[in-house]
Model the fold of this input.
Amino acid sequence: MVVAELHAAGTPFVRLDPADVPDKVVLSAHYAHGGFEGHLSVNGHLLGMGDLRAVWVRRPGEPAAHAAHPSPWLTAETRQALFGMLFSASSRWMNHPRNAERARLKPWQLRIAHRSGFAVPPTVFTTVPHLARQFAEEHGDVVVKSASGPPPGEPGLALPTSLIGPDVDFSAVAAGPALLQRYVPKCADIRLTCVGTRLFAARKTAGPGQIDGRYGGTEHAWQAVPVPESVGRSVHAYVALAGLAYAAFDFAEDEDGVWWFLECNQSGQFGFVELETGLPIAGAVASWLAQDESDQRP
Amino acid sequence: MMTLPTRQTTCMEVFRVRPFTLNYAFQQGFRPVVTPYRFDEARQLNVLPDGRPAVSDPDLLLAVGTTTSTAGSQTHFDD
Done:
């Protein structure tokens, strides 16, 4: 979708997967006489680091994973070469890998959300069973959620946000950090996509008793909605604190219309939102990427 | 006031127990996703069998949904 927008605008770009270095992607960086020159080439497309305006990071593969003879060492060398060269260029990132890595940490997200003025449900992340029990007793309806998603390497295994039943045995909390959060009875899910300073919000009515909007279909569709002023201020504060050019926020809207912060995904999908609502998110991403250094728009 | 215990269980006892959060995991069935488009290296985007960009068929994209890509972003229609 973004690529189609870049084509339409006549914006030159090169698309590559780090996994394809060195077999399909050729790279070379030269540091001499106090200067730096670098080039990337893939599928007949050539990119000079001096011409690089922006980098869009979108689910890259592990460096050199597709090499004829992959190895951890080759991955490490390739990561050094590729990202060392890209970081040497004067370009903008959506999002910079260093900020993206920190932004993935859910406990850190909650702290930044607090500082940004969002409504954040009380949350505990603990390996102490009696503290988990204490939290559940204090807050009543509590959900458990995974910070990192389902265990990798187990296709088909789902790990949705789940409501904890009464009289739960918390002893297994000692076997690994458990993230518990006060349950927000929601009327709707909100997905807010932030591209630079532009905000795009969509709302989907929740099904009866639906806990995790990612699981279980409903007859409701996503609809574009305006962003409340206070939420907009908090979003701008959040992305500034986090150093993000793109972010997809998930909120639970309660019966009073309050948008409760659940998480911020620094690489969250937007295609499904645009296709259902018509919100021009792909165009916004393409515009942001196409700006040059003289363009002062954030 | 929160207090942390000085000792909970031995390491051996902890590792016999499945972490609490995984008690809420379930198998939903794995269906390999076959995307009805391929990556065109010259145009650097996904195209349908007839050569049109995949984004020219939004109904198809919605029906396919997102893919689980292990090869970077080439199969993900957001891009």
